[in-house]
Write a structure and sequence with these properties.
Elements (H helix, E strand, L loop, with lengths): L4 E9 L7 E10 L4 E6 L3 H6 L5 H16 L11 H11 L8 E3 L3 E3 L6 H12 L15 H13 L10 E7 L4 E10 L1 E9 L5 H17 L1 H7 L1 E8 L7 H11 L7 E5 L3 H12 L1
Parallel strand pairs: 8-9, 9-10
Antiparallel strand pairs: 1-2, 1-4, 1-5, 2-3, 6-7, 7-8
Helix pairs in contact: 5-9, 6-8
């Protein structure tokens, strides 16, 4: 996974004057997936070094950081240079030197390992001495994740194909407006839209499927006039208890088989990507 990422070490400083500090956590940011990941260290270590270290208070602030990440209010979209990342973290994740906690300046790395999980695990062990059980990394397969995978599959084979793609096309009719990330032509004009069902609630999965079925229904006349088709790249829930709800969602999307749409599930994404390459090269 040769992807750009940055990390910031969160340190506990017992005294600003003395300058003594110990690492308590690491915040990773993977720019390609707009993904932040916090790994906590073993708080027994700073406690053994600084007798006045308040582990309950530090854990409280670490919980706040984690909550801010998981609330999905983190939507960093600027160029991933160190200065802008540092400012973003200061404004959205940890604004003050709370409880003696201070983020170091971001460190940019251009060579990762074969996955986010292995990269985070390896660097966490290097940066957090005594770490034995880092948390299991779970990357949400959201819309950005899906479309990035699709585009990477294409451009990794033929970079010049990217020039033949239509990006960020919005279709507007009298009733609806819908933005498509990519469009490409092979007889029909295929509008590509990722739909993530990697959600936590069955109702949310059902509502999302119903919403996009409604879009296709409303855009059917437009598709007929313009010889268009709507290709949905679909991800499934990582929670296996929601697989039945996901399958129901696919049935909702495909309820009317006469509508001009195509459903591409994650296991068919590489095959669809290759089809795009073959048609455009």
């Amino acid at each position: 996974m040769n992807d750009l990422f940055t990390y910031q070490i969160l340190k506990y400083k017992s005294s600003i004057v003395a300058g003594e500090a110990v690492n308590v956590a690491v915040l990773f940011y993977f720019s390609k997936f707009n993904h932040f990941e916090l790994v906590r260290g073993d708080l027994k270590r700073p406690k053994s070094i600084f007798p006045d270290f308040d582990s309950k208070l530090v854990n409280h602030y670490l919980d706040i950081i984690q909550d801010r990440i998981e609330e999905k209010k983190i939507n960093f979209s600027k160029a991933p240079d160190e200065k802008s990342i540092q400012l973003y973290v200061h404004e959205n994740i940890l604004a003050v030197d709370a409880a003696g906690l201070v983020f170091d300046s971001p460190v940019k790395v251009t060579e990762g390992l074969d996955s986010i999980a292995s990269t985070v695990s390896t660097y966490s062990h290097l940066l957090l001495p005594g770490l034995t059980h880092p948390k299991k990394i779970k990357v949400q397969h959201n819309e950005k994740f899906i479309i990035t995978q699709y585009l990477n599959n294409i451009t990794s084979q033929k970079e010049e194909i990217e020039e033949k793609l239509i990006r960020n096309k919005t279709i507007e009719t009298n009733t609806v407006s819908l933005k498509f990330d990519v469009a490409w032509k092979n007889g029909t004009l295929n509008h590509v839209k990722p739909i993530s069902f990697d959600l936590s609630q069955p109702k949310d999965i059902q509502n999302k499927a119903t919403q996009f079925f409604g879009y296709v229904y409303q855009l059917a006349d437009y598709a007929k006039i313009t010889s268009s088709r709507f290709d949905f790249l679909v991800s499934k829930p990582q929670n296996k208890e929601l697989i039945r709800d996901y399958e129901n969602a696919l049935d909702i999307l495909d309820f009317d088989k006469t509508l001009p749409k195509r459903i591409i599930t994650e296991d068919k994404l590489e095959e669809y990507s290759q089809e795009t390459v073959n048609e455009l090269k």
